[in-house]
Specification:
Helix 5 packs antiparallel against helix 6. The protein is mainly α.
Length: about 220
Amino acid sequence: MTALAPSRSTRMVLAGACVLLLALGLVALMVVRPSAASPSGASSAAQSAPAEDSVDAGFARDMAIHHQQAVEMSFIVRDRTDDEDVRRLAYDIINTQANQRGMMLGWLEMWGLPKSAAGPPMEWMGHTLTPTDDGSLMPGMATDAELAALTAAKGEKAEVLFLRLMTVHHRAGADMARAAAGAAKTDAIVNLAAGMVRGQESEMGLMADMLKDRGAGS
């Protein structure tokens, strides 16, 4: 299937998402970066920084990408439905996952680590992923064709497609977060990942109810 070219309104929405993510990332950097005038703070940060091939760094990189698509899908559905419950869920996902993404990119910056991995995704989980050309970089991520279908849909059709795609997205994201919460070495990643598991499992329950209300399954 040939992916549909994004409309002007979609491009504006996604541009807005990028601005929001950049702003949140900058806020996170200001919060977590030690003061340049504090040698002891800088030394402490350097000593506690995880290795480039650590679970902590791998999870932060991969989940930042995973979250970016969740935010993108939420912006798309926001403008394709008038249903207040779906729009409220989309806003919650945008705010939560954009903020978490900014935090993870901020920690990578503070640790002095690259924000993109040299190897394929999910290596920190012991997975070997075969690259594909459908746009789905990791388990749970929507393909280019699925994003195009969501962009083209309206009303209840858009709601159902969004809820199904986001359920799959959350399920894989919760699996990643559960693995990181059990294997990461920094309190920052352990605590964030554990919170992600709780939050995404709660939203999966909500989305199951919303799909049921629309006579659709996950």
